[in-house]
Amino acid sequence: MLIRTDNLKKKYSSKEALKGISFSIEAGEIFSLLGPNGAGKTTTIKLLTGQLKPTGGRAEIMGREVISNRQNLRPHMGVMPEETNLYERLTVRDNLEFFCRLYDSGYKRLEEYLKIVGMLAEADTPVKRLSRGMKQKVLLVRALLHDPEVLFLDEPTSGLDPASAADIHGLLEKLNEEGITILLTSHDMEEVERLSDRIAFLHNGRISALGRPKALKLNHSPGQIEVLVETSDGLVERRLDMNSPSTAEKISSWLEESRLVSIHSCEPTLAEIFVEITGSELR
Amino acid sequence: MNSRLRIISAILFKEFKDLKKNINLLVIYFLPVLFTLTFTYLVPDMPRGFAINSGLLFLVVMMGMYVPSMLIAEEKEKKTLEVLLLSPAGAADIFIGKGLLTFISILIVSFFLVLIAGLEGSTLFIIFLATALISIFSIFVGMTVGLLSPDQRSTGTIGLPIYMLLILVPQLSTMSGQRIMNVLAALMPTTYYFHIQEKAIAQALNPGDVMPEMGVIVFSIFIVFFALVLLYRKKGI
Fold first, then answer.
1. Quick one: fold of A3-217?
2. Is a pLDDT exceeding 80 seen at residue A233?
3. 0.90 exceeded by the pTM?
4. Is the N or C terminus of chain B more exposed, i.e. has fewer CB atoms within 10 Å?
């Protein structure tokens, strides 16, 4: 286990942001925390990166307790925060070279990553002139420059257009293939479903469900299938109960008559599962 | 040790690059020069040394306090401090890097002020030594204001009364015979700096001639440093 939390809690003066969450992430996994605004996603990341101290429970990375080993763990972590906290008056290159010097990582991967995210041409542009999507890409590159083993991404594609989001997704998949462990938070269920090995639903400071996306969908599936059948009135869509004996007979009969056009499973979306479990929308 | 030097020099280099594009702070660098030029050449009745003395005082207070307070407050406001503290850089590295930029800047600008005033001789060593010491005091005060300020605008609200006291009281106390002014002046380290400069400009001095004033400034440095450390431990950065 690379990352582990055990009954992790965080209470601010007026609010209990996390009420005891426990999960573990294996090396090389992409794990997502899915939840609406105010669920505790950013708080979880800040606790795991040592920016906040928990009020209860424990967080470990690479087998070491986070708070007491903060300084030693930092070179192994890359963090992409939700805010675009770059030095606005400096250029992209100045920003990134600064962090290369802090980490003593050399500049060898700087241009490589800028090229991958399509930002090489903007390397000498002041950050204040970049769009939000471009800044997000620079933030991601900044998190990667020192070759961390673990990546924490807080809403990495928030506010991005689909093309920019796809660029980032492609890079994350490539990084994961190279062995980087990724914890990302999002309220975009399509992004989470596409990228994640496992997902945890976070709602009101607690984990409501945890598992592989497919398994979560099957567990909450209504157990029905949707079939498209040719009739005298044209194509008709029918929903059938998978467990009913008559369903198999009907499908067999339509197949013999060459009237069956398609069969699909009726799986809920992650958003529908979230609403079913928590009673709240993913907003 | 090497890694600490590397981190501090990285921060110093970044601050220098950023300063070149920061109009708000660059203005502060030019104000003492403009002030000294104006009073040296455009006010012929000014007492000898008053212009350079006031210019240096303005420099060490405004640049020494205002610049580091703004540097720290801006990082907090723009949330760049959060990601900086996630890197190998610690709070001490950040303070030292930003403080060094201010310290070096003050010495460079004071050199120009001395050139404008036409000072020379053994006086210069005393002036630069005193300026270096009071700068350290000022930088610690500025960092304290930066820690107390949630954003850049607040540095003015919190810091300006302090800066004005430290600049005006030493100068007004030389013109006013009132007891309250003398009592206030005795509490201001900048008063002793002002006196050192007055003596150095008026006559050739050895360091021993201004040891009591230097001693007060050094003592003030320790006081404000401990206050800064206590505030940091209580409040964080």
1. Rossmann fold (3.40.50)
2. yes
3. no
4. N
